[in-house]
Amino acid sequence: MIRFLFARLALLVPTFIGVTIIAFGFIRLLPGDPVLLLAGERGLSPERYAQLMEQFGFSKPVWQQYLDYLAGVLTGDLGNSIVTKKPVFDEFMALFPATVELAICAIIIAVALGIPAGILAAVRRGSVTDQAIMGTALVGYSMPIFWWGLLLIILFSGILQWTPVSGRISLMYFFPQVTGFMLIDSLLSGQKGAFQSAVSHLILPSLVLATIPLAVIARQTRSAMLEVLGEDYVRTARAKGLAPLRVIGLHALRNAMIPVITTIGLQVGVLLAGAILTETIFSWPGIGKWMIDSISRRDYPVVQGGLLMIALIVMIVNLTVDMLYGLVNPRIRHT
Amino acid sequence: MIIRRSMKAALLGVSLALFATGAASAKNLVYCSEGSPEGFDAALFTAGTTFDASAKPIYNRLVEFKRGTTEVLPGLAESWSVSDDGLEYTFTLRQGVKFHTTPYFTPTRDFNADDVIFSFQRQGDKNHPWNAYTAGASWEYFDSMSMPDLIKEIVKVDDHTVKFVLSRPEAPMIANLAMDFASILSAEYADKLAADGKMEMMNQEPIGTGPFSFVGYQKDAVIRYQAFADYWGGKQPIDNLIFAITPDASVRLQKLKAGECHVMPYPAPADLADIKADANLTLMEQEGLNVGYLGYNTRIAPFDNAKVRKALNMAINKQAILDAVFQGAGQAAKNPIPPTMWSYNEAIVDDPYDPEAAKKMLEEAGVSGLKMKVWAMPVQRPYNPNARRMAELIQADFAEVGVEVEIVSFEWGEYLKRSTELDRDGAILLGWTGDNGDPDNFLAVLLGCDSVGSANRAQWCDRTFDDLIQKAKVTADKEERTKLYEQAQVVFKEQAPWATIAHSVVFMPMSAKVSGYVMDPLGGHWFDGVDIAE
Question: Where would I find the H helices in B258-386?
């Protein structure tokens, strides 16, 4: 196990260097540059352009820019945004909790609804319930997020007025951010009604973000359950006269869960991708929108730094999951 | 140090608590802004969204635009005089003007000449300690308005008198000083930040003399301001001003309808009918100070021939463009400046839409089987909401007179760069929104000989036109200037370096409870003087 851990940690080094190269190179492959966009319709004289390119350090050879960037990264300095002039790391930390909070709520919804729906569909295979659940899952999976979000806003916020339209909390609440997680901060603030307001603001965006993972999890649960339900040990359990709920819930579900958990893990990427649209619709101040804005403005340091931070987090999560697999499942134990 | 930090935290806590407790009973105006500000030191930036959040609520300038017009009024300067040679501008400063008191700064003195000198010198003097106070600081507006060459020195005559000495006469100087980059900051606050080693906070925790003081900014979410009780212009009718950052236009409208905000900019054109029909909403509209155009490259044959350009202009059906692209929210442009701008030449007659005559003129000019490129911008702008569609309509119009058009487009930064190239192949769709309401800001910037290779995308240098606008630039008398600009527009029309397409109309939906809002022809969003019914 220790050897495995070291092997994985050693692998992180080339992966990390690879990520810095991709993060650095990716944005530079796109045409245009930040200085041109800064000037807009007004245009720049060639002299002023050269002067600004030099000031931002973009006139140096690309390899030198990369080495400067790498040196910065290794000393914990991701540089400053060209647009806001603020340190990239500070901006990331200010926005990341909002994205995480939304992603956690979305995954909870997706799991809490997706797994029971999948089980129900598997148990009632071929019935109207099964077809209804799988049909809904297919619709959910194919739904354009932007359109779906707006539809929910118009229905629940506009017509029914059950939920607020957008934002993280009602504007009447105002307290310093402690953790960056609005649910926690609203509780810490002690202001009456703040927590409820934060919850009500979370409902629609998490539902929208959960839609695709929910559909995927429901379908995956169904197929895994169907496979397991046909196994001999399940037939034996039934033959023994165990209660159907016990057979499904205890014997079948446990084994069906392995591929489902893998699927849930894979949804992290989907959540981050989905967050870009969801954050835009619901004016949610997270990293998805921040990255998109930075790409369109060619804010090189933000794109580089943001990608690197996201990649680092994914790498750490993957490593943790790998370790957990080893610990939890004896069949995948590493030596 | 620790004690000071905890003191500051306690003060911040108190002010947040005051803001929060006040929020329930106080008058709050919520503005659903379209984007996040880049920062709060306006002179560092060029985006309107940033100016709306910084220069307009927090700061004042020596002179200000009269709300709803481009007329210049006294601001922090009570009065000014210009020397006969037009080289010296002497400003008498308003006395008793207070800077904001916030948890992070308590001023010990009123506004004076030092603040004016600080605010400008840091932008112009490369050796000034505040010239590069934050990473990548550049003073784009100051530079692009030619201030570094223009301002020879700024002299403190006494505490309440400041003299700007120019290197050449410049008639638009006063209008320039009303622009956002000319906002006046506190030199005392700057000294404090420098002493504390926290200079970058100038861009994050601003101090100004404006109608609202800064309370807090939660990135990409909310900006909060409080009405400044000691504002020299009197306290505002509202107590708190809140910007709820809402990037999507449809969501902004839903928030407005749900009462989550009271004013919103930039509605989607498709929503206008819905807004007009809603009794709880008011829809204000104003002609934008902008122009959308098709600029030929006048250095390349056959577009170096004015007759060819004129013929192509006559082939364009502007009304069809207004209907399809602007959905009625625009008016046909005949001059390079919008009709709301002084010196607009009403007498000019637009080229008629006449494909037959255009065809004949092209034949007379010896042009047949012409193939050309039309560049369509990849972005939406107030002066051109859908460049691709516009290019397609022009393509169809030109086909009728026997001209084959290929539509090309590039990524926006690349588009802007390539469009300035002297040997650019093709006519380009672009436009302009005015900065300061002065005709010079359109005619010299977009069509002057000095701008060839940058903002002058037609690469057009006409000596008669250029002499007129250069003369107007150094003439102090407004009537005289008006005549010169009117003549310049006649030359422009004869020479036709552009096909002037349209001036758009800008819409501003708001709750019917809001009163006192005045639309800014320069496209800014101001909240001083705005009230809301309880």
Answer: 272-277, 306-315, 318-324, 355-364
B409 to chain A, any CB pair closer than 8 A? The answer is no
Residue A221 C-alpha, separation from nearest chain B C-alpha, in angstroms: 35
Q: What is the rounded average pLDDT for all residues in chain A?
A: 87
User: What pTM, to 2 d.p., does this model score?
Assistant: 0.88
Instruction: Report the distance separating Cα B139 and Cα B191, nearest Å.
Output: 20
Using an 8 Å CB-CB cutoff, list chain A residues near B133: none
Enumerate the β-bridge partners of residue B90. B81, B163
Best interface-test mutation with B: which of A38, A84, A189 has the largest number of B CBs within 10 A?
A84
pLDDT in tens, B254-264: 999 999 999 99
B476 in A contact zone (CB under 8 Å): no
**Which of B16, B44, B413 minimises the CB distance to A32?**
B413
Best of A44, A101, A165 to disrupt the B interface (most B CBs within 10 Å) is A165
In this model, does residue B68 exceed pLDDT 80?
Answer: yes
Q: A73 to each of A15, A21, A136, how far by Cα in Å? A: 15, 12, 46
Place of tokens 């109207």: A128
Task: Give me the pLDDT at residue A23, please.
Answer: 85
Q: Which residues of A touch B23 (CB under 8 A)?
A: 171-174
* pLDDT single digits (tens) A1-36: 677 778 878 888 898 889 889 889 888 888 778 888
Q: Is B430 an interface residue toward A (CB < 8 Å)?
A: yes
Count, residues in chain B:
534
Cβ atoms of A66 and A24 within 8 Å: the answer is: yes
Nearest alpha carbon to residue B58 among B271, B205, B165, B187: B205
Among B212, B141, B149, residue whose Cα is nearest residue B177: B141
